[in-house]
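Now for one specimen:
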Amino acid sequence: MEIPPKSPDGSEKSPQSRELITSNTGSTLCMSSRSESVWTNTSRSKWDIYHKPIIVVSVGAAVFLFGMVITSLSWLGFLPNDKDVYKMCGPAFLSLGLMLLVCGLVWIPIIRKKQKQRQKSQFLQSLKSFFFNR
């Protein structure tokens, strides 16, 4: 005779049936698919809106400058010549920093456009509710 394995907490239900009973994936899926700002009308500060692209631009600029320093020092001969690692890492940091810098700079106008669209949408919704709810 084979004894069914007990669950870790000692109850008789299998882990699969417990997951099916207590699962609330529908509500978490719905909650994670929409941001909270869509459901609320509270205004957010500029920092709350733009903090991610500002951080990406800052990190990108720092990495780009670090790559410039490493590249210039290695090509001018101030770093040891026997290690070609510096000559390879400098351009890698340059390209990575430039990529982050450009991504952050492109992200800012995208956020501005979304903010304008959201404001237009809220204005049209208020007009619609004003005229049709009379």
